[in-house]
Amino acid sequence: MSLDEDLEEAAAAGVGLPAGLGLRRARAWLSRAVEPGTIDFWRYVEDVGPVEAVRRLRSGRAPERIRSLVGARAEQDATLADLTRAERCGARLVVPEDDEWPALPLHALTLAVSAEPREPANQSDRTKAPVPPLALWVRGPARLDELVDRSVAIVGSRASTAYGEHVAAELGHQLGERAWTVVSGGAFGIDAAAHRGALAAGAPTLAVLACGVDRPYPAAHGALFHRIAETGLLVSEWPPGCAPLRHRFLVRNRLIAALTRGTVVVEAAARSGAQATARRAQDLGRQVLVVPGPVTSAMSVGCHELLRDENLQAVLVTSAAQVVQAVGRIGDDLAPPVVGPTSLRDGLGDLAARVLDACPVRAGASPERLAAIAGCDVLEVLRVLPVLELADLVEWTGTGWRVAPPSGRKGGPGAAA
């Protein structure tokens, strides 16, 4: 059947039914007709429905403003070719009418776009507008809604340092071990390190692409995308075969921010897409998390600026446990407090610590000498010394007491009081 015939059949069937071929073809057509992020076009589709929107656009009955957004694409139809091409690479079209649609995370975009003005001249630029997607092309075996339910975005510079890649990989691995999905953009640098860290933990990960899910970009990440698609998902608003045009990377950043509970910025230059993603996350009510870097590194300037921005309220994090505490359930995902290395001296009382400090390192000292240095009675020194000796902190030399060599200490913290 032709597209128009399928649309007519879908229109006759009405709404409230599972997404049939006509509705799916309508969504597929819309995903190619207009670039994502266009506020007025999304509003028009919401007002009249996807099937009716396509019928009016193809027949020239849509408002002039909407027809101008589609242009010459109104007469084209590549829906069956797109759906077939997706099927051949193991992909599918997920639409808002499907059970798999991540309605709850994407609702933040719906709320945000409702605040946009009606006048096009006053609206946000398309690359920054918080517009929900009309459909998503998804490649991989996992369910989209389940994979993003417990997810965290990790973003950063393409020109990353060894420090940044190490941190991103560690975060990805640790989050994967905690059954959290790592979401990123599949780019060089921090993105790739985060994806690989999650894969190394045997966890699924999700890459949001700025091109078709059948077209690996960068091409050097073909093997990485194949591994992601084996257990996780490749996601895109653009149909199979679409090229990774520059403006599309800016548009897709809002999806990375919206699909996740928080965005972690590992490395970012003074001007970077990672900073833009963080600010999208903040606009959508998501938590912004930042990993600090060396103050001498140009790749961490953006991170430090995010932390300095009082309006952003970014949280400094250094581990996956701290990330999960910030985005997880209150009371259930608390990070353990950071504890420094323990010492045998930690459990000593004041008197014992003073006597220990009074002991020389080499030649032994008498209890009377120790009492004079520690500022206490000789009897108190004689009471404390056996306890310190049991903890292997002091030893008798035959002529006096001294600090025991480190190799001879076998006691644990708190052994002496």
UniProtKB/TrEMBL annotation:
Signal peptide: none annotated. Residues 128-326 form the Smf/DprA SLOG domain. Pfam families: DNA_processg_A. GO terms for biological process: DNA-mediated transformation. Belongs to the DprA/Smf family. This is DNA processing protein.
